[in-house]
């Protein structure tokens, strides 16, 4: 049994000063039981906790670490930028370079604004869509998580799901009433809703590949139907690509599926590990933002030079090494290892993967929406999670989170992981 005494005392102290001992709920391990470990340092695909235990990491700081932890290109860029000043609140060249890169890479983005988190990006998209259309209703999908925005904490995924609190206290009923939720992948339900209320709907926000209730894919034609209905009724279609942007392709999932949303929310990979988000899209909609237009949106630290430099360095490095093709290869290798482990252990569980994102559901059959995902054996997952962690592999501490591969994962890492996964599934 490895030593966890330092993590345990750090957590005891943290709980005295921080609610639940954490600055974001899912970190508290409530979905799997036990206590979180505290990190000492992280490099490449590995993490060392404060007790000296080494782990192979498949969380990657929840998505941003696409090159692995602390990549040299990103560290150098931060140091270089910091030497010139850490924040200005004055326009700076980094911001323009970032905006130009996003507009060139993401097919639907003509103009973009930087913010400090994914939550800010989706929140701003919603306000902008309402301002642009003059309508109030918004539509989201069960199990999709778009950050802790009041109007979007309705039947939300991620931590909100793990903790059994899909509807947060503190969200006025009047806000929630303006949010309509639908099951994902149900085209008939979409059509019925639009026929009844389409002309009152400001926006539909969707994770085109939902990855906050595990991971499931859109059925063929589903996103096309969504695009078509939004166009027909003058509703703003928002793709939340905070997780999938720059990860599933250079231009996000929209490049792969060939569908152009009106607005896109971005985060995670774009910041290289620093606190960054962005939202962008059609110029006629983006031009409604202050100071050009009447929709207010602002930020003291938005476009921060360190964050821009870190993000740009990460994006350029991905492009330089053609990271997306390499991640696909690593993903396929990881998938083969996991499927072999399932076979050896005699389990028929559902393994889903797209590129470098994956989820092992502790259930059989197919998973296409939240209801399917909820069939999972959460206690079984918790035992599996802890067995992997004890053996040196860190997966996300919840059945309802996706896993991430990075360019820093080696064949040796994947081989060792497959062994550990086999052992954990067999036990
Ligand atoms: N949208 C999606 C799809 C996300 O996965 C997340 C966070 N996991 C967010 C929005 C919110 O981002 P942040 O935590 O940076 O506010």
Would you mind describing this structure in some detail?
The chain is an alpha/beta fold. The chain has two domains: 5-70 and 322-426, Aspartate Aminotransferase, domain 1; 72-320, Type I PLP-dependent aspartate aminotransferase-like (Major domain) (Aspartate Aminotransferase, domain 2, 3-Layer(aba) Sandwich), CATH 3.40.640.10. The protein is built from 15 helices and 14 strands. A seven-stranded mixed sheet has the order 4-10-9-8-7-5-6, sandwiched between helices. A four-stranded mixed sheet has the order 1-2-3-13. A hairpin with a 2-residue loop joins strand 11 (350-354) and strand 12 (357-361). The protein is globular. The protein starts with a helix and ends with a helix. The mean pLDDT is 96. It binds 4'-deoxy-4'-aminopyridoxal-5'-phosphate. 4'-deoxy-4'-aminopyridoxal-5'-phosphate is lined by residues 62, 117-119, 122, 145-147, 158, 207, 212, 240, 242-243, 267, 277.
Keywords:
alpha/beta, Aspartate Aminotransferase, domain 2, 2 domains, 7-stranded mixed sheet, 39% helix, binds 4'-deoxy-4'-aminopyridoxal-5'-phosphate, porphyrin biosynthesis, Glutamate-1-semialdehyde 2,1-aminomutase, transaminase activity, PyrdxlP-dep_Trfase_major
Task: Produce the secondary structure layout.
Blueprint: H1 5-17, E1 39-43, E2 46-49, E3 54-57, H2 72-82, H3 93-105, E4 111-115, H4 118-133, E5 137-141, H5 159-162, H6 173-176, E6 179-182, H7 187-197, E7 201-206, H8 222-233, E8 236-240, H9 252-257, E9 263-266, E10 277-281, H10 283-286, H11 305-320, H12 323-345, E11 350-354, E12 357-361, H13 370-373, H14 378-391, E13 393-394, E14 403-404, H15 411-426
Parallel strand pairs: 3-13, 5-6, 5-7, 7-8, 8-9
Antiparallel strand pairs: 1-2, 2-3, 4-10, 9-10, 11-12, 12-14
Bound molecules: 4'-deoxy-4'-aminopyridoxal-5'-phosphate.
4'-deoxy-4'-aminopyridoxal-5'-phosphate binds at residues 62, 117-119, 122, 145-147, 158, 207, 212, 240, 242-243, 267, 277.
Subunit structure: Homodimer.
Family: Belongs to the class-III pyridoxal-phosphate-dependent aminotransferase family. HemL subfamily.
Protein name: Glutamate-1-semialdehyde 2,1-aminomutase
């Amino acid at each position: 049994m490895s030593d966890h005494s330092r993590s345990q005392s750090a957590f005891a102290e943290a709980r005295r000063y921080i609610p639940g001992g954490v600055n974001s709920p899912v970190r508290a391990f409530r979905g799997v039981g036990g206590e979180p470990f505290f990190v000492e340092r992280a490099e490449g695909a590995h993490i060392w906790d404060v007790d000296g235990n080494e782990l192979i990491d498949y969380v990657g700081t929840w998505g941003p670490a696409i090159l692995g932890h602390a990549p040299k290109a990103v560290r150098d860029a931060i140091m270089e930028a910091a030497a010139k000043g850490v924040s200005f609140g004055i326009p700076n060249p980094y911001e323009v370079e970032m905006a130009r890169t996003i507009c060139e890479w993401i097919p639907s983005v003509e103009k973009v604004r930087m913010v400090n988190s994914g939550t800010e990006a989706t929140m701003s998209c919603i306000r902008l869509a309402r301002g642009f259309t003059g309508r109030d209703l918004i539509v989201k999908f069960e199990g999709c998580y778009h950050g802790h925005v009041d109007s979007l904490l309705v039947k939300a995924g991620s931590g909100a799901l793990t903790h059994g609190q899909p509807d947060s206290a503190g969200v006025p009923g009047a806000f929630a009433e303006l949010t309509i939720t639908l099951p994902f992948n149900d085209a008939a339900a979409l059509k019925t809703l639009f026929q009844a209320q389409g002309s009152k709907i400001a926006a539909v926000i969707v994770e085109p590949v939902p990855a906050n209730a595990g991971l499931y894919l859109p059925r063929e034609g589903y996103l096309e139907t969504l695009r078509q209905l939004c166009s027909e009724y003058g509703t703003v279609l928002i793709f939340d690509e905070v997780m999938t942007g720059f990860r599933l392709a250079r231009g996000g999932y929209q490049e792969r599926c060939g569908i152009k949303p009106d607005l896109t929310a971005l985060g995670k990979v774009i910041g290289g590990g620093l606190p960054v988000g962005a939202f962008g899209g059609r110029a006629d909609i983006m031009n409604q933002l202050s100071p050009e237009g009447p929709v207010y949106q602002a930020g003291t630290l938005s476009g921060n030079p360190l964050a821009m430099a870190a993000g740009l360095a990460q994006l350029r490095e991905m492009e330089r090494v053609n990271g997306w093709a390499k991640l696909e290869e690593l993903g396929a290798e990881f998938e083969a290892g996991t499927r072999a482990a399932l076979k050896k252990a005699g389990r028929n569980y559902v393994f889903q993967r797209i590129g470098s994102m994956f989820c092992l559901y502790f259930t059989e059959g197919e998973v296409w929406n939240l209801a399917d995902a909820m069939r999972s054996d959460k206690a079984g997952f918790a035992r599996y999670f802890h067995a992997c962690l004890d053996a040196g592999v860190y997966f996300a501490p919840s059945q309802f989170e996706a896993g991430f591969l990075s360019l820093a994962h080696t064949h040796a890492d994947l081989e060792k992981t497959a062994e550990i996964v086999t052992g954990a599934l067999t036990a």
